[in-house]
């Protein structure tokens, strides 16, 4: 959003215009919009870490980028929707190429620091593993440890903790503060606006055929994780470890839910039942209190 607002990138710009190294000819048809809406045709996931953990840390970034350029699309871009970690790894690469800054540094300088968000950050594992007041996640077999203060995602971990698809830590209060800023900017009500209201509306619009917004999820027709009471115009996002937020822009209502559902094992999927229930309960209680 920041780069688009500065006219340094556009939604319908092909990814190869920034990163020309992709081998699959179909990649020439993949746009920034496709990547944000998960309709690029890229696969959902690949365990790059299995090979990268054998590579010296200083060489892993280049090795990962080479492997991303070798990926083959499963279908024509824009035809199907599949949530893709790889798409957001490529978006990170694009952002860093255009900005000349690492993703975490750009976010801190442009957004987190000016907003005073001291508890929203990536943890650079090349520097240190921050323990602090952070919930533990999984007892990881291949890392032979309980993960705490380190990114849970295997691919992001092997890359040092920072990537486009995983690695962000935050408190509920700071996530709420960031969402409040987005809501204020979307209505043109901020004294210090970070994002143009029209641009936010574009990003929060349902895309065809994906049914998602750009970089955000939207309620599905059946079994939406936000429950029954968020309207279809709502936007949100889920994190694999049990984190989520949902926003109702019409009523300026949002719910932030941060759990560690993968503790001690990722095979606990009870949150699929819990998420909609807790959202329903909160929304019912809010309507009763008005």
Task: Tell me about this structure.
- The chain has 290 residues and is α+β, with helices and mostly antiparallel strands.
- It folds into 2 domains: 2-101, Methane Monooxygenase Hydroxylase, Chain G, domain 1 (Up-down Bundle); 171-290, DD-peptidase/beta-lactamase superfamily (Beta-lactamase, 3-Layer(aba) Sandwich).
- It contains 10 helices and 7 strands.
- The chain has a 3-stranded antiparallel beta sheet with strand order 5-6-7, sandwiched between helices. A two-stranded antiparallel sheet has the order 1-4. Strands 2-3 form a two-stranded antiparallel sheet.
- The two termini are 35 Å apart.
- The mean pLDDT is 95.
Main features:
290 residues, alpha+beta, Methane Monooxygenase Hydroxylase, Chain G, domain 1, Beta-lactamase, three-stranded antiparallel beta sheet, two-stranded antiparallel sheet, 10 helices, globular
Question: Secondary-structure element sequence?
Answer: HHHHHHEEEHEHHEEEH
Structural class: alpha+beta
CATH superfamily of the largest domain: DD-peptidase/beta-lactamase superfamily
Instruction: Give the count of structural domains.
Output: 2
The portion of residues assigned to helices is 25-40%
Q: In CATH's first tier, which class of the largest domain applies?
A: Alpha Beta
Could you say which overall geometry the principal axes of the C-alpha atoms support? globular
Rounded to the nearest angstrom, the distance between the terminal CA atoms is 35 Å
Largest sheet data: 3 strands, antiparallel
Mean pLDDT: 95
CATH topology of the largest domain: Beta-lactamase
Rg, nearest Å: 19 Å
Q: Into which percentage range does the β-strand content fall?
A: 5-15%
**Arrangement of strands in the largest sheet:** 5-6-7
> How many strands?
7
Low-confidence runs: none
- Judging by the overall fold, what is the CATH architecture of the largest domain? 3-Layer(aba) Sandwich
Count of helices? 10
């Amino acid at each position: 959003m920041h780069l688009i607002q500065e006219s340094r990138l556009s939604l319908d710009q092909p990814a190869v215009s920034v990163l020309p190294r992709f081998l699959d000819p179909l990649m020439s048809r993949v746009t920034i919009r496709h990547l944000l809406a998960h309709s690029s045709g890229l696969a959902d996931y690949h365990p790059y870490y299995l090979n990268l953990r054998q590579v010296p840390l200083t060489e892993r970034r280049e090795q990962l980028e080479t492997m991303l350029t070798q990926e083959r699309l499963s279908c024509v871009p824009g035809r199907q929707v599949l949530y893709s970690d790889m798409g957001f790894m490529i978006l990170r690469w694009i952002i860093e190429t255009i900005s000349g800054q690492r993703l975490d540094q750009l976010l801190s300088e442009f957004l987190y620091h000016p907003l005073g968000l001291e508890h929203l950050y990536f943890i650079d594992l090349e520097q240190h593993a921050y323990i602090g007041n952070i919930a533990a996640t999984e007892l990881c077999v291949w890392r032979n440890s309980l993960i705490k203060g380190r990114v849970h995602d295997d691919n992001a971990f092997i890359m040092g903790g920072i990537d486009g698809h995983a690695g962000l830590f935050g408190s509920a209060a700071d996530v709420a503060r960031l969402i409040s800023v987005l809501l204020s900017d979307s209505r043109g009500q901020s004294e210090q606006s970070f994002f143009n209201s029209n641009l936010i509306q574009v990003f929060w619009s349902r895309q065809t055929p994906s049914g998602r917004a750009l970089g955000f999820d939207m309620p599905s027709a059946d079994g939406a994780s936000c429950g029954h009471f968020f309207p279809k115009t709502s936007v949100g996002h889920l994190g694999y470890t049990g984190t989520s937020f949902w926003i109702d822009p019409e009523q300026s209502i949002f719910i932030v839910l941060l759990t560690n559902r993968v503790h001690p094992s990722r095979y606990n999927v009870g949150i699929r039942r819990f998420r909609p229930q807790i959202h329903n309960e909160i929304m019912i209680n809010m309507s009763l209190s008005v």
